[in-house]
Design brief:
By secondary structure, the protein is mainly alpha-helical. The protein has helices at 2-23, 28-49.
Length: 65
Amino acid sequence: MRIMLYILGSLILLGALCYAATLIGIPSVWVGVMGAVILALGIMGAARTGVSRSGGGGTVINKVD
């Protein structure tokens, strides 16, 4: 559920920034580049928040034979 909210927020931010960039006259090529970068950052952030952190408390003890 958190991942979907993160992606939705990223898409809303992407749309708003692209719309604002076209209103102020930034060329469409640069709007596309900016959009691709924001979309990639949103996907990477969503992937990072979706990582499970369970698995024994997080402390690793190496056994030496």
